Amino acid sequence: MRRLRRREDRGRRLAAFMTAAKVRSVPGWLFPALLFLLCGAIALPMLPVWQGGVRLLAGIALISVLADRPGMRRMIAAVLAVCALISGAAWLAWLAAAPFDHVIHALTDVFGQPLGLLPDFSLLLYDALCVTGLLCILLRRDRRGGWPYLAFVAGLGTFWWWGVLTVAARGAGAASGAELSQMATGLSGWATWVYWAGLTLLLVRDESQVQHTLKALGIGGLIVGAAIALQWVGADFSYVIASVPGVSEGFHRVRGTDYYHAPAACIVGLTAIALLGLTGERRRFGALLGAAALIGLTILNNTRAVSLALMSALAVLLMASLWRRQWRTAAMSLLAVALVAPHLLYLKPSLTGAPAQVSTTAAQDGWTDFGPSSDPTAATGGTPPRRVGVADVARANAPRSALAESGLAILPDAWLIGHGVGTLDLPLEGDSFGGLTSTYSTHTLYLDMALMAGIPALLAALVVFASGAVGTLQALLGSKSSPVRAGSAAALLAMLTMFAVISLFLPQERNEVIGIAFAVAALALAAAGRSSTEATGPALQHVAAWVPGYVLIALGAAGWTILTSPTYIFPALELVVRYGAEIVRDRQHVYVNEPAMRPVLASLLRLRGGDAAQVSVLADGAQALEARQAWIVWNPGRLPAYPALASQLGKPRHPHRNQALAISMPAHWWLMPSAQPTASFLFAGARTKVPAGGLHRNVDDASIQVPVLPNHAPFATIRLGPTIGGRAEHVADFNQGSAVSWNAAHNAEIRFHVPEMAQQPLRAYRMNALINRSMQAAERYTWTMEGSADGRDWTQIDSRSGERVSHDVSRPSTYLIPDAPAFPFYRIRFVPAGNAPGASAGLSEMELYFSPDGRFTD
What CA–CA distance (Å, rounded) separates 55 from 416? Predict the structure, then answer.
């Protein structure tokens, strides 16, 4: 009897809990709000806005659908409000303290902005409540969804909560407060993926809403496509790299735009497939036309990974269309497959030229060259790129393969709970992946998930997407499926296939692309399990009312595209923000070589008190070399329009790395690297003020004009000794992230040939030491600097012993040479460091400064 009473008590408690968890109808406006967020997250790359929006919507949905228990609802609402206020107040405080840095971080940080343990863990608590509440509601709401539905919800919960276990395990270990804060912030970013899936599954209730969701995805893709087309019209490429000869060279990866290059192509391809899933007769032709336009833009983007993923999706859609006898869609899919297939072997022209040439002497003695004779572009003599084969593609993919190999090597160390979300660094010193010192991603999403949160988290994520795929197959193969449901299921299965393939090459940084894929997986499950009744209630009435919101998103995307224009707008904004006060105060002139930038720059200077007469277009002639107290904003894509300057100065060495105008700049030109690799800021003349870390001397008399010297190291022919690993170009490439390295117990030698400086002595040089994260670092360096007239007989001009070389890229170590003759050849010879055995030494950047005037070394 006692056992029976205990069983009855447990039954009553369970019934009471289920009553408390009983859900009610969701407010009608939540569904159109979800569509608005989905469209905006695709169309306008402002990650914090959409992550905050979907988090807020999840909290509102959780409170709205709970049973009518005022006490419980008030308690949950209060906790969520307190957590949101704590994290929001910290966010606003940082914004007020450093608005510029805050905005830049908000737009570019992959795993969010750690603000401190209290605000970050407050946000994590908010997410824990919302994720758990939403998943409980989903389990209670639809018990008849079958095992795919249950597996989907269980997979979402396991995926996120296993990440929480990682944070807990690291917190119990030796993790610092900063690391825990970053993990909590990164895990909150992962929570938004669960929100996209959970809200979609909760709010999409019938076939009509599935179609409306596909339409919202398609509208977002069309907006991105319009942005790409707008840039094409203006020859301003930050979202797209094209296969058209003479165009790809103008492409620039512009940071601060979440969808640039491959992500833009990926999202456009996904949404093109979404448009193909719209089956209504009245909108069918328009959807097909939009899908064709987006597929065309994806083909023009021409990345190998996106082409492979899109072709896989189109092949799935082709087979599904043939199965359902949808001949029009099948024909379009077949044509698209034929158009995409040739681009699987596409390589940019810079990767298809002749291989770098190494001199015979260098090849014999083990030295590695970098200079005019080894410039791949120069080696081709202007001839078209050679035909690309499978071996070329494999060679081009080798750096990414190195990333994956590095990730696999450290996977056994934490295969169960991972290394921490957002705190992973891979050891990539030296020549890996273009010389990156370290990276947070293997560029394989599956491996990233396993490395950060453990293999169980990866398996749970795979269950989520597999459950959605099973749902689409049920809808496709079911005898009772309606044409609308079958069409939606075919498109959604193709979208899931595309994401599955692109994830082999997708880095973790594409937060919104991954979030949209989670929503697609939930939509696929909803398409299979929801009724076929056309919804005519408040939800769909609200959809029409939100049309102005979609227009606002489109206008915002257009404004964002213009604002981040790498050719016309962004460099002008950066110049005025950084140097506008000086330009206006000293009445300095600004020359631009991109005519379309002149009115933009003139307008911005007028806002700061200047006038339009201070800006003009640079003339092609020798007079440009004599400019004094003037700025030159140089767009490298405009070099063909300046044949006279090009013939006098020579060809640029680094086409996309903040390069100076050419190999030989005038001695009075100073290069000011810009934030984006799309323009060079050159100052012509003497300066009394230079940026932090620049070469200058402290003077009290402002009338003294201190000569500012250009760094000529990137324009030298550089040779590495046989003991040095890496590529010679990484010694001086305006990129402190690339490096060369050697065993600190060995000698190392680097040579520079600078014939254009044969009459001007070397007055100073600067260095950054290799930043070691996975290798034991050499603490001190000893070397001699020598010069030679013929490259055989050497004269010592400087020597240092036991120096600690700076690792701070903003402040390199500076070494002055008060008095030395001029030479065309220089070499720096490092001797063994003599400290801990097994340590590694190296350089991430070296700069050489020449001048006939020694006053600045006083």
Answer: 28
pLDDT tens for 451-481 read: 999 999 999 999 999 999 998 888 887 756 6
What phi, psi does 630 have (nearest 5°)?
Answer: -145, 155
- Structural domains of the chain in order of their starting residue, each with its CATH number: 570-684 (no CATH), 713-857 (2.60.120.260)
CB contact at 8 A, 719 and 728: yes
What pLDDT shows up at residue 173?
A: 79
The confidence score (pLDDT) of residue 23 equals 44
Instruction: Classify 366 in phi/psi space as left (phi over 0), alpha (psi -120 to 50) or beta.
Output: left
Give pLDDT tens digits for 746-784. 899 999 999 888 888 998 898 988 765 555 678 889 999
Q: 718 near 732, Cβ under 8 Å?
A: yes
Q: In what order do the strands lie in the sheet with 669-672?
A: 615-617, 589-592, 630-634, 680-684, 669-672
- Could you give the CA distance from residue 727 to residue 429 in angstroms, rounded to a whole number? 12
**What is the reported pTM?**
0.76
- The residue type found at 413 is D
Which of 638, 636, 631 is CA-nearest to residue 615? Answer: 631
Return the residue matching tokens 């002749």. 354
Whether the predicted pLDDT of 239 surpasses 80: no
Element at 676 (helix H, strand E): none
State the number of CA atoms in the 13 A half-sphere of 45 facing the CB: 28
Report how far residue 101's alpha carbon sits from residue 693's, in angstroms, rounded to the nearest whole number: 19
Whether the predicted pLDDT of 352 surpasses 70: no
Structure tokens at 93: 């405080």
